[in-house]
Amino acid sequence: MNKVRTLYPVWTMKHKKYIRACRESLINVAEGAVRAGKTIDNVTAFAYELERSPDRIHLATGSTSANAKLNIGDANGYGLEYQFRGRCRWGKFKGNECLYVRTSKGLRVVIFAGGAKADSYKKIRGNSYGLWIATEINLHHDNTIREAFNRQLAARKRKIFWDLNPDNPGAPIYRNYLDRYQERAEQGELIGGYNYQHFTIFDNASLPESRRAEIISQYVPGSLWYMRDIEGKRCAAQGAVYPYFAEHKEEFYTDSPDFDFIQIGVDIGGTRSWFAFAASGIKEDYSRVTALSTRRHKAQGLTPEDFYQLFLAFEKHIARQYPGREIRAVYSDSAEQTLKNGLAVRTELPVRNSLKRPIMDRVRCENILMAQGRLFLTRDCASLEQALEAAVYDDRKLEDERLDDGTSDIDTLDAFEYSWERYLNRLVRASRRGEGGSSGV
Hints:
The chain is built from 15 helices and 14 strands. The model is unreliable at 434-441 (pLDDT under 50). By secondary structure, it is of the alpha/beta class. The strands form two sheets. The chain has an eight-stranded mixed β-sheet with strand order 3-4-5-2-6-7-1-8, sandwiched between helices. A six-stranded mixed β-sheet has the order 13-12-9-10-11-14.
């Protein structure tokens, strides 16, 4: 007979109050700082309801399927696979990853899916769900949110569990959902009940003080990410994008770059008519990134062949500066396939499409690296230095966005980010080694 493991999490009264209120509420939302215990609260409440649910199929989502499995399925040993240890197994259900769970009501299926892309909703079509738990709901596309709601309409017992870190106050998740739910709940118009709680990192009783101090030290005080992730505040992105760099520029320079391999990023500039090249040195363990060299060229009057020759000169410069060091690949602006393909013919280096990860994901990663002393520049990066100093947020937008109106050098920033964005998740995970690998930063 399989034994079921008993878990012993430590909760403050604030967390206990939220979990108990989940039993009586249709919509349950935990918002606040990183490592505040939000997701584990929802996983625990979800597991309680799953044990008793009359519905067969249920839904767990994250920005990606992998994110959902990590934060809801595993959750540092408190996820669903541990809540139901001895009576659950991972498998597939209609092409989706799922967790099969034996409950007192029979076999239940929890489908894990991503929700960040415009077409993510297609993966959750075709099923009727009873319970829905979502981590980082603010990173879900609205198509996914609406589809998940629609898929719950036939549920015998419908419940929703969301968590999120604070976002821009004008973000769609607030305008379209949370603020409206709060207002209607206060007016007594929201049928089913709305259970909302805000948590900070200091509400997590299971987090040792030494670990809490370590996590806080990984952020730049006063930065956007510090205010959101540590102080748990909803705040608008405004002012300088990289304030710590602007104030402590000399700290980032190195005359002896430490890296294991090189990658080159290329931004073709589009309508702004600038070409930018950036070479980055990256450690195999992703512990640091060093900008080795950057160049920016005005494209007006240049032919495609001029562009190719400028790149080849840059490539030669890097090879001469760092002889014998491996240049693994060139990541070129994926929006300009003609020039990218022409470049591939003229260089012996592998030329690949840039991933074009969301800009704010790249910005967040850069701020993490800066705060932890893991980002460096050589003196051969004048254009990148200027770009980092001049970058500001677009305060005209409701959503976080780096200003791109030609008044600052976005081209060099893009080229630099293309050179390492393929490893973005690994770079961020490397910063979490002191956090036990959990989500948060």
